[in-house]
Design goal:
Strand content: 5-15%
Strand order of the largest sheet: 10-2-9-8-3-7-5-6-17
Protein name: Helicase ATP-binding domain-containing protein
Organism: Hermanssonia centrifuga
Number of helices: 51
GO molecular function: ATP binding; helicase activity; hydrolase activity; nucleic acid binding
Keywords: ATP-binding, Helicase, Hydrolase, Nucleotide-binding
Radius of gyration: 39 Å
GO cellular component, one term: cytoplasm
C-alpha cells in the first residue's frame, strides 16, 4: 500500500516529522519486518522503477491505520490505490490482513499536532538616502524589530568619515575644500631631497621606457596631448600615417593653396637634402665595412645599423637591407659545408641560410619603396632559391613601388649567369617543393594577419577582430576580449587611454593589473607613450598606486595604474565617491582571468560589481569564456552599459613543446666555447600527447605548420585503415603554389587534419597497440621518447638532478639559438636556488679554466704590466701637453684604444656567461649601480653580470624592474621567475622552461558580499566602517575584529595587568583572524611536534582563541545566521508565487507534484500535518527538517530554489570559531606569525612552521600592513572622541621613508613611528589601553619584519 501510494503524493505531502512507534512494534518492524520486506522487494517488486520507499510516510500510514482500525483500507487510501494493492495481493496469493488485531496489540502513540513552521517572518529595518529609493518596492508590512547584540564595552558607534589614509591617519585623502589638508611646507633641504628623488624616478622611468618596443619592435614614440577646454565633448583621435597602397583608392584631385604649395616645396627640398646627406653617410659606412676582415664582422655591424632610426625610412632602408641580404649570400658561399659531399651537412646548411634569406626577402618586400634595381635583385634571389614563381605575388603585395632608376650603392654578389640567368650555385636551390619547404621550416615566419585592413585610428593594419574592438570602444561599450598572448591585445588599453586623455582634463581611466611587476611595466609604457600639458597645476597624466607605494597623486591624474585591492578600497570610500569616482570613464581589467584564483579573486568580482563605468576585460586564458562573459554581460547591462564579447582564438606566436631528458651522470661543464649540444631536448608532437582514454580531441589541440606536415605523412601511412583522401589533402595540391603561405591558410588545413584525426580516434581502441591511432602516434613521436617506458616518462626527478642538469640545459638552448629563456619555478626559494646553482656552475668552470689556461695567465701578466706603466704614460702625456698643446691634442685624437683599457679581470668571461650578444657593458654597469644601494643580495647582482636574473614578488621592486628592462634589452638571457613574470609582462622570449611541478595553479575563488553589520539603525556608517572597508579583502575577519572592538572583548584582553600578557593574547586573537594558514594533520603528530619543539624556538601550533573573544564571535555568528535566515524567510514569503517549485529531482528530472490523484482521508491527513516550510526545500523537509537551520552552510545548501544564497558570500565566522579537527577546521592553525613575533627568525619559520622561504616576506608584509590598518583606525576613533569633546590631538609630521626603503620619487604608503601620538582629551582608560597594546604589537612586529630584509 505504501509503495503504490507514494507516486501519487506531492513532495510537500511527504515532508513529514518523525512519529515514534510503540516500543514492541518498533522492535518488530526493525528486526523482523523490514529485513524480509527488502528481500522480497528485491526479487518481486522490480516493476516499480525506480523503487521508491519513504520511511516517514510508511510510519504515518501505519499510525493512521492503527488509529482508525474500524475503517476499511479503501476508505483510508481511496479506491484507486486500494485496487492497485488488491491486484498485487491477489497476484502473489497473499493472506488477508487484520488491522484491528494489530491495533489491539500495538496502540498508536500518535499525538495530534501541526508541525508547520512557526518562525516569525521579519524584515530588517534599514534606511539610507542612497538605498531608500531603489528599495522602496519591497513590501515592509512584516517589519519587525531588529535585535542587536548588546555592546557595552566602548562607544564605537560614532558617525564615520573616511577622510584619511588607511595605514596612517595623519595623511588626508581629500582635497582641502572637502576637509583635507595642504601639504606641510618644505624647507630647502626637503625640497632638494624631493627634487633629487623626482629626478632619479624620471631617470629610472626613462630607462625602463627605452627598453619597451611597439608591435613592430621599434622604440615607442611619445604623443603629446594638449589640454582640453571644458566645452569639448568628445575625444578626437587624429588619423595615423599609414602605408596604404596608392592602388587601393582613387583619390580626388585636391585643391592646393599657394601657402600649402610653398610648404610642400620646402618639405621636398628638405627631403632632397636629407637624401644627399644619407647617400654620403652610407658611402662612408660602406667604405668602413669593406675594410673589415670578415663577412661575419660586416653582418654584426650592419645589424647594429639597422637599429638606427636613420636607417628606417626611404631608399636608405631598402639599400641597407639589400646589403644585409648580400652579406647573407656571401656567408653561404663562404661556408665550408655549403657544397659539401655530405648530403646531410649540405642540407642542414641550406635549411639555415634559406630561412634567413627568405625572411630578409619577405621583410624587404613588405617595407616597399622598391626601385627597379631592388626588384631585380630580389627576383634573382628568389630564382636561385627555387621560388621563381613567387616574385609576382611578392611585388603585388608590396605597399609601394619606386620608379626612380636608382642603382644600388654597392655591388651585389653575383648569383646568376648574365646570359642564361641560370643559377651559379646549384647548392642553393631547395630540393623539395616550395610548399613542403614552407611547412617544414617557415611556419613561425608566416604572415599572421586575419582579414587585416588599414584603419586611420591606429598606425598598423588591424585584423577584423581588432577593428571590432576599436568600434566598441568608440561606442562606449563594455568589452571582454579573449585572445592568446601576442595576438595583439596591447593596443586596446592605449587606444582607450588616448581617448580619455583627449576627451577632457577631468576624465579618469583606471588600469588594474594583478601584479606589481605588471603595474611597473604599464607605468613605464604609459610614460613612454603619452604626455599632456595641463592648463592648471596639480594634475598629472598618470599615477601609480599599490599597497606599497605611490607615484604622483592618484586622485589628480587621468590614468591611474593600480592593483585590484587599492581600487576596491577607493571605490568603497564615501568621500571619494563624491569627488573622484564620478570622474572614472573606463576601467581596464588586465589578466581578468585571475578572478578565478583563490587569493584575490573576490576583489576582482567586487570591482566589477561596483564599477561606475564601462569596463574592458583582457585575457589570454579564460576557461569557458562564454559562461564568464554571460555573467559579465548581465552585470554590465544591469548598470546600463552595452556589452561586447570578442573571442579571437588564434595564436600569433608559435608554442612548440619539448621535453628535456635529464642525465643521471652529467659531465662537467667546461665553458660555452667548447660545449657540444647534448641532444637531450626532444620535440613533443601534439598528436603524440593525446590522452588515449578519451574519445575526442581536446578543445585546445592545435597544430603548427610543421606539425601539419608530419601528421599528414603519418595519416598517409594509415590510409588503408582509415578513410583519408590523401590526394585532395596533399599540401602540394591543397595550397596555392605562387604565394607564401599565411597562418590563415594553415588554420584551414589544420581543421581538416583535426577532423580526420577525430575520426581515427573514434574507430581506434586505445588499448590496442596496433590500432591506427597508436600507429600514427608512434610515427610522429620522437624516437628517444618512444623508447622510454611509461614509468620513465612519468618519473619525477629530484631537485638535485634538476640542478645538476641545469647548466647543460641552458647551454643546449644557447648553442641552438633558443635564448633568451624564462625558467619558471612556482616556488620563490626554488627560483633563487636554481639561479645560484647556475651561476655557481659558471663561476667554478671559469675558475678551473683560468687556473689551467696559459693564455689567461699570459693575458693577465700583460694587463698587469700595462697597468704598472699607467703612471709613466700619464707623466709623458702631461709633459707633452705642457710643451705643445696642439701636438698633445692630435696625439690624443689619433691614439687607438687598447684592449687593456676596457679589461677587468673580475668581469665574467664570455664563454662563462649568458649575457646577450648585444649587451652593453656600460648600460649593465649603470643598471647595477642603480640597485646596489637597495636590499638586493650580492649573489643576485653577481648573477646579473653573468646574464642571469631572478624575478619574484619577494625581490625588491628596483631589482625586479632592472631584470625586466635588462631582459627586454637583451642583456639578460636567462631569468628564473614565478608567475609574476607570466601575467602580461612585456618580456620577449624564445623559450619557456618549467623547472618543477607546483600545486599553486589556478583555482576557483569564491565571491564576497557586503554585510550590514557596520551601519547604525539609520544606515549611517559607524566609526569602524573604515577598518572593515580597508581590510575588505580579508572578509569575514574584517567584520570579526569590528565586532570584537565594539563588544569590549578586545578591551578586556588589553586590560590585563601584564602588558606582555595583553600583547600576547591580542596577537593570538589577531592570528586567528588574519594570515591564517593551516598545518597538515600528518605534520602535527605527537612525535613530530615534540621533535620540532625540541629543535626550534617556534611553537608551530597556534593556541586557542581567548575565551572572551570566542564567546563574542559565537554570539555574532548566531546573529549572522539569524539575519540571513530572516532574509530567506521574508523573501520566500513575499515571492512564493514567483519562486520555482521544488518538485523535480535535479538529475532524473522526475516530478513529484501529486497532480491527478484522487483525494482520501489519509492524504487529507498528510496535507494537514506536513511540515510547511517557507525557505527550506521540500525535498529536504522529507527528512523532517523545517525552517530552523543549524548554520550558514546548511541554510545556503538546503534553501528553496530561487532564493539566491551562496554560503561563501555570507560572512560566517564558523571556520574561525570551529575547533581543530571539525569539518569547518580540519587542521590546526599555524602559529608562524606569533612565532615570528616571539623570535624573529625566518629560518625557523621555514624549518619548523613549514612556511616556504619564498612566501615568508610576502606573508609577513601582509600582516604588517594589517596591523597598521587596525592601529590607524583606532587612532582615528580616538581623535574623533577628542574632536567631539572640543579638544584636538597633537599630530606629528610623517617620517618619509622613500629614500630609505622604496623607489625614489614614490610615496611610501607605510607610516613612520607613532611615538608622538599623545592621548587625546576625552579618551577613556580602556580605549587608550587598546591603542597602547596594538601600537606596541605593530611597532615590535614591524621592527622584526624590517630587520629581516634591511
Amino acid at each position: 500500500m505504501h509503495l503504490v501510494l507514494l507516486p501519487s503524493l506531492s513532495v510537500e505531502e511527504r515532508a513529514r516529522p518523525y512519529q515514534p512507534l510503540h516500543v514492541d512494534l518498533e522492535d518488530y518492524v526493525r528486526n523482523s519486518f523490514l529485513p524480509i520486506a527488502f528481500l522480497v522487494a528485491e526479487k518481486t517488486l522490480l516493476d516499480f522503477d525506480p523503487l521508491d520507499i519513504d520511511g516517514r510516510v510508511f510510519l504515518d500510514l501505519l499510525h493512521f491505520l492503527l488509529c482508525h482500525p474500524a475503517l476499511l483500507p479503501q476508505q483510508i487510501v481511496g479506491d484507486e490505490v486500494y485496487n492497485a494493492v488488491e491486484a498485487l495481493w491477489v497476484q502473489y496469493g497473499l493472506p488477508s490482513v487484520d488491522f484491528e488485531d494489530l491495533a489491539a496489540r500495538f496502540p498508536s502513540m500518535l499525538t495530534p499536532s501541526n508541525p508547520s513552521s512557526t518562525v516569525q517572518l521579519t524584515m530588517l529595518p534599514f534606511s539610507n538616502p542612497v538605498f531608500d529609493r531603489p528599495l522602496s518596492s519591497i513590501n515592509t508590512a512584516n517589519i519587525g524589530t531588529d535585535t542587536e547584540i548588546s555592546f557595552d564595552g566602548t562607544e564605537f558607534n560614532m558617525p564615520f568619515v573616511d577622510g584619511h589614509h588607511w595605514h596612517n591617519h595623519r595623511r588626508a585623502i581629500l582635497p582641502k575644500h572637502l576637509g583635507g589638508e595642504d601639504a606641510a611646507p618644505q624647507d630647502d633641504w626637503q625640497r632638494k631631497r624631493q627634487l633629487r628623488s623626482d629626478q632619479r624616478l624620471m631617470s629610472k622611468m626613462q630607462w625602463q621606457a627605452e627598453s619597451l618596443t611597439g608591435a613592430l619592435g621599434r622604440p615607442l614614440q611619445r604623443i603629446t596631448i594638449v589640454s582640453v577646454p571644458q566645452s569639448s565633448k568628445r575625444a578626437i583621435i587624429p588619423q595615423r600615417a599609414t602605408q596604404e597602397s596608392s592602388k587601393s583608392k582613387k583619390v580626388k584631385k585636391e585643391h592646393v593653396s599657394k601657402a600649402e604649395e610653398i610648404r610642400r616645396q620646402h618639405a621636398a627640398k628638405k627631403q632632397t637634402d636629407q637624401n644627399l646627406s644619407n647617400a654620403t653617410w652610407w658611402l662612408e659606412i660602406l667604405k668602413t665595412l669593406n675594410e673589415l676582415s670578415s663577412t661575419a664582422s660586416r653582418v654584426a655591424s650592419v645589424e647594429r645599423l639597422l637599429n638606427n632610426s636613420r636607417t628606417d625610412q626611404g631608399w636608405l632602408a631598402v639599400d641597407i637591407q639589400l646589403y644585409r641580404l648580400h652579406l647573407e649570400f656571401s656567408l653561404w658561399i663562404e661556408h665550408p659545408d655549403a657544397d659539401s659531399n655530405n648530403p646531410e651537412k649540405q642540407a642542414e646548411v641550406r635549411d639555415s641560410f634559406t630561412v634567413t634569406i627568405m625572411r630578409l626577402v619577405k621583410d624587404i618586400y613588405e617595407r616597399g619603396d622598391l626601385s627597379p634595381a631592388a626588384q631585380s635583385v630580389l627576383e634573382t634571389a628568389l630564382h636561385v632559391l627555387g621560388f621563381k614563381n613567387y616574385a609576382s605575388s611578392f611585388l603585388s603585395a608590396s605597399p609601394r613601388t619606386n620608379n626612380d632608376d636608382k642603382k644600388l650603392s654597392f655591388k651585389f654578389v653575383k648569383l646568376a649567369r648574365s646570359k642564361s640567368a641560370s643559377p651559379i650555385y646549384k647548392f642553393m636551390e631547395i630540393t623539395e617543393d616550395p610548399i613542403i619547404w614552407q611547412l617544414r621550416l617557415f611556419g613561425q615566419y608566416m604572415d599572421r594577419s586575419m582579414d587585416s585592413e588599414y584603419d586611420h585610428r591606429v598606425s598598423f593594419k588591424p585584423d577584423a577582430w581588432q577593428r571590432r574592438v576599436l568600434d566598441s570602444i568608440d561606442q562606449n561599450h563594455s568589452l571582454l576580449v579573449v585572445a592568446p598572448t601576442s595576438a595583439g591585445k596591447t593596443f586596446i588599453s592605449y587606444y582607450a587611454m588616448e581617448q580619455v586623455l583627449r576627451a577632457s582634463d577631468e576624465g579618469v581611466l583606471v588600469y588594474v593589473a594583478p601584479t606589481k611587476a605588471l603595474v611597473s611595466q604599464i607605468a613605464a609604457e604609459v610614460y613612454a607613450r603619452f604626455s599632456k600639458d595641463f592648463r592648471s597645476g596639480g594634475h598629472t597624466c598618470w599615477a601609480v598606486h599599490t599597497r606599497d607605494y605611490r607615484i604622483h597623486n592618484p586622485q589628480n591624474c587621468q590614468i591611474l595604474i593600480t592593483v585590484p585591492e587599492m581600487l576596491g578600497i577607493m571605490l568603497l570610500s564615501p568621500p571619494l565617491a563624491q569627488v573622484w569616482t564620478p570622474r572614472i570613464k573606463r576601467i581596464i581589467l588586465d589578466e581578468i582571468h585571475t578572478i578565478g584564483q583563490q587569493e584575490g579573486g573576490a576583489v576582482w568580482e567586487q570591482i566589477i560589481l561596483l564599477a561606475p563605468c564601462p569596463i574592458i576585460g583582457l585575457s589570454a586564458t579564460i576557461g569557458q569564456p562564454e559562461e564568464f562573459n554571460a555573467w559579465l554581460k548581465s552585470v554590465q547591462e544591469a548598470h546600463g552599459y552595452q556589452h561586447t564579447f570578442i573571442h579571437h582564438a588564434h595564436r600569433y606566436s608559435h608554442l612548440r613543446k619539448y621535453s628535456y631528458i635529464l642525465d643521471t651522470k652529467a659531465s662537467p661543464f667546461k665553458g660555452l666555447d667548447n660545449f657540444q649540444n647534448t641532444g637531450r631536448l626532444h620535440f613533443l608532437h601534439p598528436a603524440s600527447m593525446l590522452s588515449f582514454g578519451g574519445r575526442t580531441l581536446p578543445p585546445d589541440f592545435s597544430l603548427e605548420a610543421a606539425d601539419c606536415l608530419t601528421l599528414f605523412t603519418a595519416l598517409v601511412s594509415q590510409r588503408d585503415r582509415v578513410q583519408f583522401d590523401s590526394d585532395s589533402f596533399d599540401p602540394m595540391r591543397f595550397f596555392n603554389q605562387t604565394a607564401l603561405l599565411t597562418q590563415k591558410d594553415i588554420l584551414g588545413y589544420e581543421a581538416i587534419l583535426r577532423d580526420t584525426l577525430s575520426e581515427v580516434i573514434a574507430i581506434s581502441d586505445p588499448h590496442d597497440e596496433s590500432s591506427p591511432l597508436n600507429a600514427i602516434v608512434r610515427q610522429v613521436q620522437d624516437p628517444a621518447i618512444a623508447e622510454m617506458t611509461s614509468a620513465q616518462q612519468n618519473d619525477v626527478p629530484s631537485p638535485k638532478q634538476i640542478l645538476s642538469n641545469l647548466i647543460h640545459l641552458v647551454s643546449d638552448l644557447h648553442t641552438s639559438g633558443d635564448l633568451p629563456a624564462l625558467l619558471f619555478h612556482f616556488d620563490r626559494s626554488g627560483c633563487e636556488i636554481a639561479a645560484k646553482s647556475l651561476v655557481t656552475a659558471l663561476d667554478n668552470a671559469e675558475k678551473a679554466w683560468q687556473g689551467s689556461s696559459p693564455q689567461w695567465k699570459k693575458k693577465l701578466e700583460a694587463w698587469t704590466e700595462w697597468k704598472a706603466g699607467a703612471a709613466a704614460r700619464a707623466n709623458a702625456a702631461s709633459k707633452l701637453l705642457k710643451q705643445n698643446k696642439r701636438l698633445a691634442k692630435d696625439a690624443q685624437e689619433h691614439s687607438e684604444a687598447t684592449w687593456e683599457e676596457s679589461f677587468n679581470p673580475r668581469d665574467p668571461l664570455p664563454q662563462f656567461s649568458f649575457l646577450g650578444p648585444k649587451c652593453s657593458k656600460s648600460q649593465l654597469d649603470e643598471a647595477i649601480r642603480d640597485i646596489e644601494w637597495t636590499s638586493t643580495p650580492r649573489w643576485a647582482i653577481t648573477a646579473l653580470r653573468r646574464g642571469v636574473g631572478v624575478h619574484h614578488s619577494g625581490m625588491n621592486k628596483h631589482y625586479r624592474t632592472a631584470v625586466e628592462s635588462l631582459y627586454r634589452m637583451g642583456h639578460l638571457q636567462v631569468v628564473f621567475a614565478t608567475g609574476t613574470l607570466a601575467l602580461g609582462i612585456n618580456a620577449p622570449t624564445k623559450t619557456s622552461v618549467f623547472c618543477a611541478d607546483s600545486p599553486y595553479l589556478t583555482a576557483l575563488m569564491y565571491r564576497q558580499c557586503a554585510g550590514r553589520a557596520l551601519m547604525d539603525a539609520a544606515g549611517n556608517p559607524i566609526n569602524l566602517f573604515g577598518l572593515a572597508t580597508h581590510l575588505y579583502y580579508t572578509e569575514p575577519s574584517n567584520f570579526a575584529i569590528v565586532v570584537l572592538l565594539r563588544s569590549g572583548a578586545i578591551h578586556d584582553i588589553c586590560m590585563h595587568p601584564s602588558m606582555e600578557t595583553a600583547k600576547r593574547e591580542l596577537l593570538i586573537l589577531l592570528c586567528h583572524l588574519f594570515g591564517r594558514r593551516y598545518v597538515p594533520k600528518v605534520y602535527t603528530s605527537g612525535m613530530n611536534v615534540k621533535l620540532l619543539l625540541a629543535k626550534s624556538p617556534s611553537k608551530v601550533l597556534l593556541p586557542p582563541l581567548p575565551a572572551c573573544a570566542e564567546k563574542v564571535l559565537l554570539a555574532h555568528n548566531k546573529e549572522i545566521l539569524r539575519v540571513f535566515k530572516g532574509y530567506a524567510l521574508a523573501y520566500a514569503a513575499e515571492h512564493m508565487a514567483a519562486l520555482e517549485a521544488d518538485r523535480s529531482l535535479p538529475m532524473s528530472k522526475k516530478v513529484y507534484s501529486g497532480a491527478g490523484s484522487s483525494p482520501s482521508p489519509f492524504r487529507t491527513y498528510l496535507k494537514s500535518t506536513s511540515i510547511a516550510a517557507v525557505a527550506r526545500s521540500p525535498f529536504v523537509c522529507n527528512s523532517g527538517h523545517n525552517d530552523e537551520f543549524a548554520n550558514v552552510e546548511e541554510l545556503s545548501a538546503t534553501s528553496r530554489s530561487g532564493i539566491q544564497l551562496r554560503g561563501h558570500g555570507i560572512p560566517s565566522l564558523q571556520h574561525i570559531i570551529a575547533n581543530p579537527g571539525s569539518r569547518e577546521k580540519p587542521f590546526p592553525l599555524n602559529a608562524y606569525l606569533l612565532d615570528f613575533y616571539t623570535h624573529g627568525q625566518t629560518q625557523a619559520l621555514a624549518a619548523a612552521n613549514g612556511i616556504r622561504r619564498g612566501d615568508v616576506w610576502y606573508l609577513l608584509q601582509d600582516f604588517t600592513l594589517t596591523l597598521k590598518t587596525i592601529r590607524t583606525s583606532i587612532e582615528q576613533f580616538l581623535q574623533s572622541i577628542s574632536a567631539a569633546s572640543g579638544a584636538s590631538a597633537e599630530t606629528a609630521e610623517e617620517n618619509d621613508l622613500a629614500d630609505d626603503l622604496d623607489l625614489p620619487g614614490m610615496d611610501d604608503d607605510e607610516d613612520g613611528e607613532t611615538n608622538s601620538f599623545q592621548r587625546p582629551v576625552g579618551a577613556s582608560d580602556r580605549d587608550w589601553r587598546v591603542f597602547e597594546v596594538i601600537n606596541a604589537i605593530t611597532k615590535e612586529f614591524d621592527e622584526k619584519y624590517r630587520a629581516m630584509w634591511a
